[in-house]
Design goal:
Radius of gyration: 13 Å
Number of strands: 0
Shape: elongated
Structural class: mainly alpha
Largest sheet: none
Order of helices and strands: HHHHH
Distance between the termini: 24 Å
Helix content: over 70%
Number of helices: 5
Strand content: under 5%
Length: 78
């Protein structure tokens, strides 16, 4: 998941990444890594979506769109 999108969603709700981690009863660094650099589980995405009040489909679509944009950029560069 793109960190900037998540950061904007948090900001719109007056939350920080630490607030999100606290609400999910997890470590901030662990959460950051799993969401931005790892492959988050569906359960993790559902938990984040619930805290933010966003439908899970939003997170799934964002992930797919970002992957497609990255793929297209790679094609254009090569």
């Amino acid at each position: 998941m793109d960190y900037n999108i998540l950061k904007n969603l948090l900001k719109e709700r007056g939350l920080t990444f630490q607030d999100l981690a606290d609400k999910l009863n997890t470590d901030r660094a662990n959460l950051y890594t799993s969401l931005t650099k790892g492959n988050p589980t569906l359960q993790r995405l559902e938990s984040v979506a619930n805290v933010l009040g966003v439908p899970i489909i939003v997170f799934l679509l964002i992930t797919v769109i970002i992957a497609q944009v990255y793929f297209l950029c790679c094609l254009l560069i090569s």
